[in-house]
Amino acid sequence: MASICVLGLGYVGLPTAALLAAAGHRVLGVDTDPRVLARLANGEPHIDEPGLATVVRAALQSGHLRPAARPEAAEIFVIAVPTPLQRGEGLPRADLAAVRGAAESIVPVLRKGNLVLLESTSPPGTTRDVLAPVLERSGLSAERDLDVAYCPERVIPGNILKELLANVRIVGGLTSRAAERAAELYRTFVDGEIICTDAMTAELVKLMENTYRDVNIALANQLARMAEDLDVDAWRVIELANRHPRVHLHQPGPGVGGHCIGVDPWFLVEKLPEATRLLRVARELNDGVPKVMTDWAIDLVRDVTRPKIALLGQAYKGDVDDARESPAVRVRDLLVARAGAQVATHDPHVGDHRDVAALHRCVDGAHLIVLLTPHAAYQQLDPVDIAQRMARRVILDTRGCVNRTAWRAAGFRVEVLGASPRPR
């Protein structure tokens, strides 16, 4: 088994490091955040992910996984660091500072024959034009002396371990030798098929997977608006349309979040602005939905002096603790910026106050509930109990997940994205 240095112990890096260790590799897990290292020193991951704590503890106890603040010499290096959007004037751009920083940190310990893998989602050409030149500061050629490859992660929070093991992996090398060496590594712990290609193709595959979903969600959000204007239930339209064997409409919502779907299309727009008009329109449509939801919420309490608005959910999707790029957070920030409303939030997976008592404090005396994240806990709420706690019984369901009949029977005015007339 190999000595491996994994740089970045986030949602992808830590599970990957733990599974590599479980396969028998000697793994050094590197992270620059002392809080992450402190948690691991106590045998606890900093991420709330099903099954992860058990795998991490076993890897640490076996000695096959060792956390560290700096990289050391190894046979294989895996870079799994964030590539967030850099927002400012003009269009959003990929922030590759962490990729460059990780690459720079291993230059002093690189040796001829090392395999370097990039897993971070990146614009096309990053492996060749950004990673390789940094690695070559070691005096080694990225194609002759090293093996450099791109293998994008293809997992979703809430199911990371299963998908790391079972999903098909696309491995793209700067050379065919690099791709095959990378595939050999993944075969030691991945059950899914592993397909070799070139680095640029692998980069584009990853970006198109998420761009397809973003455009599909934009279509669903456009459908929601059409359904509202036509007095039709968009959720029923989607359900019936998806009975067609070649149709797979996604669901509308308060926007698009997470570290991939709402981010990756911008990487393509940045690289190819003239060839990505559809992607840009979809991105702008989805980015605009949080403001639409904010305006809707304000309209529902317009007649109340100093209203209290209870926001249920801050994670970007149901039953995960991941609030990166979450539209729920954007709605919260937009409402807080509006003078005159008291905004309370609750999420059973995000933040320090996750219990039922915190939920009750959130809705006590509220004039409006805005359901932003479809956590199972929210779908199981007793509307009769909630009704007794509120100053006024109104709920705006942006996820189409509440039992409308039960909530209306409890005396609620139920507004549903895609099924209720939207304020003009």
Folded structure, characterized:
- This protein is of the alpha/beta class and 424 residues long.
- Helix content is 42%, strand content 15%.
- The chain contains 16 helices and 15 strands.
- The chain has helices spanning 13-22, 34-41, 52-62, 97-106, 126-135, 160-166, 176-187, 199-230, 234-241, 264-271, 277-300, 327-337, 356-363, 376-379, 383-389, 404-409; strands at residues 3-7, 26-30, 65-68, 76-79, 85-86, 93-94, 115-118, 147-150, 169-173, 194-198, 308-312, 342-346, 368-371, 394-397, 413-416.
- The protein has an eight-stranded mixed beta sheet, with helices on both faces. A five-stranded parallel beta sheet has the order 12-11-13-14-15, sandwiched between helices. The protein has a two-stranded antiparallel sheet with strand order 5-6.
- Strand 1, helix 1 (13-22) and strand 2 (26-30) form a beta-alpha-beta unit.
- Helix 4 runs parallel beside helix 5 (126-135), helix 8 (199-230) packs across helix 10 and helix 8 crosses helix 11 (277-300).
**Span of the ends, CA to CA:** 63 Å
CATH architecture of the largest domain: 3-Layer(aba) Sandwich
| Strand element count | 15
Shape category: globular
Helix percentage range:
40-55%
List unreliable stretches of 5+ residues. Answer: none
Largest sheet features: 8 strands, mixed
Q: Write down the CATH class of the largest domain.
A: Alpha Beta
Judged by helices, strands and strand pairing, the structural class is alpha/beta
| CATH fold group of the largest domain | Rossmann fold
**CATH homology group of the largest domain:** NAD(P)-binding Rossmann-like Domain
Strand order of the largest sheet: 3-2-1-4-7-8-9-10
Q: Any idea how many domains?
A: 3
Number of helical stretches of at least 4 residues:
16
Q: Report the radius of gyration as a whole number of Å.
A: 23 Å
Mean pLDDT, all residues? 95
Strand content: 5-15%
